[in-house]
Hints:
By secondary structure, this protein is α+β, with helices and mostly antiparallel strands.
Amino acid sequence: MKLRSLQLLPSIALFISFSFTLLGQGILPQEEQEETPQEQTDTIQKHSFETTEISKAFNESNSLITESGKKHFSEEVISGFMGEVDTLFSTISQFMDDTIVIAVKGVSIRELEFMAQRAGFYHGELEQLLNMLSDKTGGISATTKMLDANKEKWIITLESDHEEGIPEDRLIRINRITHRLDSVKSLLQEDLSRILMQEDRISDKMDALEQLQGIVQNRRTSIGEQLFSRELSGLIKCMSAPGDTALVQKHILQIQKSFKTDKEILISKYRRQMELVALFLVVFLVFAIWFSKNYSRLISEKQFKLSDIQKTLIHSPVVTVFFIVGLLIRFTLPHLPHTFRSLNLMIMMIPMLIIVIRIFGMQVRNWILLLFILCGLTFFYELTFDPDRLLRMILMIFSLSGLSLFLWMYIKRPLWDEYNKKLMYGILRAMLLIFSILLIVSVVANLKGAFRLAEFFTIVPIQIALLAVGVEVATTVAGTLIYLFLASRSMQRVNVIMSDFKYIYKKTVVLANLLLWGLFFIIALNILQIKDDVFEWGERLFTDSIAIGAAEITVGNILIFIFVIWLSIAVTKGIRHILEKDVFPRVKTAKGVPSTVVMFVQIILVSSGFFLAAVAAGIKLTNLSIILGAFSVGIGFGLQNIFNNIVSGLILAVERPIKVGDVVQVGELLGVVRSIGLRSSNVKSFEGAEVIVPNGNLISNEMINWTLSDSSRRLSINVGVAYGTDTDQVIEILQEVAMNHVLVDKKPSPTAYFTRFGDSALEFKLRAWTNIDNRLPVESDLNGAINKALHKAGIEIPFPQTDLHIRSDETKVKPHQTK
């Protein structure tokens, strides 16, 4: 299948090269390199209203005034808008006043992330507001221009009519119209000035937030560079110093402050999304419960045997749905406020814990439960900012607990015998070893006073371990959902899915796993706080050009070109399967039409994919023409045979002298046409061999098509009877036997002939027509029936006989004469 898809590429290149050759020779129309500049009319003559159109013009101007007046903001709207802007500015000012300390005081990385998120949220709110105001100003400006143009036309009309003598009532109406136009314009200009003033205020505030984001980014970079530095005293010395009795209260206040600010962001920005999530949760939950009770009616368990894991997930609809919805929230709302993002993780851990225990058994309950407890405590830990003695003690407990957990899992190797994915299990064990080393370093760093390093090496392993478990559960759930979807009775009505179920399921699961583990990689980079650096490095790798002579290429363009070509071939293959197995079997078409349509669809799709790949990769068509021109030269020197076969394939597709399913004979080859490709065709001989025949042989050489217009074939059976037999009786018997066979065509009717006098028999020939697929069975049946009928009629079927006469040699010496 892949070979046939790749065989289309030479034809595409040939087609493109000939197009460019004709283009260069001027046979086809070419695009002009330089467009003739359009003449710019500097002066536009403005005309007055015609006398006959004055009444209509009055109505149009009144409608324009009415519609323009609707765009004027009332005082209530202006005051409400101004109040909303002032409230937002007040909130931003309070935030800016609180965060000004970051310029003079060192803070933790979590507090910087909190500030960056808040600044980004406010910047987004102001940007949306600014875009809305920009749309308003654009609309008002366009309306004022229309009002000015209409007024100027009335003035021209007034001046032209004044020379001829304008009626008094018309003069009054025109003056009234121009006055109303000026009034509406002045109102809109007042609105425009107010909006522009607010735009300036918003732009200034956005600049301040951008400066703050820059400061935060610089501070984060500085903290990252000082990660291995010692910023506090040793833990033992810190514990012996006098302590602050209000530490717990201080942390509680920090948590309350974080929750309050994040709640404001959630309500103002994510309220609608959360309502949609709640609605989706209810609908999905109802469907999952219904499916768990009725899945046996929707899926044939005789045809599709469900595994224990799949049945476990089916009979756990509530926890499965909560896990899926929590995962969707995490992926679709990546910028959710930190508090609620952590809360989402805690809620999602509950169904994830239940699923892991139900799938892998109670033997993993203890260590997975401990991992989830550590992650839950990490949530509260990350809401506090100041690295005091209480926080350092909690961090030490985390480090020792995580170290015990990972070492125990590494040594005991739980699920080693039951887990099927040995490669993934090996990767997880390697991660456990690395995490254990990091936690040992964390303990030492905390004792020495390198708090940031200890914190980083403690939280990162726990979060990544939980993330790995979550992604593994997600791949299991995704595989189950894909299996249930494809195995459902409704999807099994699709012929492609029914015939290629295992292939489609396998490829879809691989794609889902790649997607989920790709997300794991991105989230892990974010946890390690190196995502931006890695992405910037990748962007430079793919976008930096490499000079090869006068041409410049990039790795990204090469990969894009290869990917688009691969995607076009894959899409072509999928569409071909759908056409062959689902569309054409349901539609009545002439024989051979489906294969022709499929071939041209392949050519069009792959050709389009080639052009799209070239455009996406940034290849200029002039450079492409040079390459294809060189390819044309190659055709002239060494690819004539391939080109001949490709053209012959196009002729076969258009003229259709043979079709898929025809019985053809090419030289000594006799077989059934299995497929007709662009370069070659597949003929399966009656001995079972599949012969690849170049299309040029089918066109240039003599070919016999036994089923071109009719699938009937004539049989000839020779029969010999003994001399003295009634010939008319033999003819009657032969014709009667053939007529009684159900697979023998009655029109034309079977015919028997007395052909000649043989050496030892009277020879007859029976001729009958039948379908070519039934030729051998019918011939065998007729031979047997003829033998029985002749035997029953007492007619002998002779066989050649030879008499051997032995003569003695008189000249040979006899034995008694030698004595």
